[in-house]
TrEMBL record:
Major localization class: cytoplasm
Localization per Swiss-Prot or TrEMBL: Cytoplasm; Cell membrane
Encoding gene, per UniProt annotation: hflD
Protein name as it appears in the record: High frequency lysogenization protein HflD homolog
Keywords attached to this entry: Cell inner membrane, Cell membrane, Coiled coil, Cytoplasm, Membrane
NCBIfam families tied to this protein: PRK00218.1-2, PRK00218.1-4, PRK00218.1-5
Keyword Cytoplasm applies: yes
Residues spanning the membrane: none
Family indicated by similarity: Belongs to the HflD family.
Gene Ontology CC annotation, any one: cytoplasm
Membrane topology: Peripheral membrane protein
InterPro entries noted in UniProt: HflD, HflD-like_sf
Length: 214
């Protein structure tokens, strides 16, 4: 059966978007607000009608992730920020596999995310209350699955409680994207043998967004 590289690329861009948000938050304490909002919101729809529906049915919501995907797959660097992005991306994929193997963790995750929806009736998506709730889900459900993701950045920035919550919430959303990636046919083998295909698909989506011919 032929792979749907459009959906695979979108879901992979979702993982990469989370990785880049984590990196920017850890180093600078801030990140593109629109990309963060879309990424956090992706946690709430566990039964989407399509891959794109997870990200508001609009490819532009994943522009930050698509650009990151291209950078990660084209990078030959074994050090620096490119290596960090690759490490975060692969680490989220590993944790998704561990999550998928634990029925208890999956049930707990669904239950906790359902509660987020109820809290949204009273608090904003990016309120300290919701961010803290998302971060707690990551700490309670995902972290025990191991291996833990070592986030590197500015020690002073990483001591900030709100930054910590945003980082953990972004990692949780990245694992949600990795679940989606597996569901639509994504695999680690593609990262080795189909890099050009994935890069070209991401470039084609970006070209349509920018109104330029591919």
């Amino acid at each position: 059966m032929a792979k749907n590289y459009y959906d695979i690329t979108l879901a992979l861009a979702g993982i990469c978007q989370s990785a880049h948000l984590v990196q920017q938050l850890a180093h600078q304490g801030q990140c593109p607000p629109d990309a963060l909002k879309i990424t956090l919101n992706s946690l709430l729809d566990l039964n989407p009608s399509s891959t794109l529906a997870v990200y508001g049915d609009y490819e532009a919501h994943l522009q930050f992730g698509l650009e990151t995907l291209i950078a990660v797959l084209k990078s030959n660097s074994r050090q620096g920020l490119g290596t960090e992005l690759t490490r975060y991306t692969l680490s989220m994929m590993v944790l998704e596999r561990k999550l998928n193997a634990s029925k208890t963790a999956l049930n707990e995750l669904s239950s906790r995310i359902a509660r987020l929806d109820r809290q949204l009736a009273h608090y904003g998506l990016e309120s300290d209350t919701l961010l803290s709730a998302m971060a707690s889900i990551y700490v309670d459900v995902i972290s025990p699955l191991g291996p833990r993701i070592q986030v590197t950045g500015s020690p002073a920035v990483l001591q900030n409680a709100q930054v910590q919550s945003k980082v953990r919430a972004s990692l949780l959303a990245g694992i949600r994207a990795a679940v989606l990636w597996q569901q639509v046919g994504g695999s680690r083998l593609q990262l080795m043998f189909s890099r050009n295909r994935l890069v070209n698909e991401a470039k084609a989506i970006l070209a349509l967004l920018n109104g330029t011919p591919t």
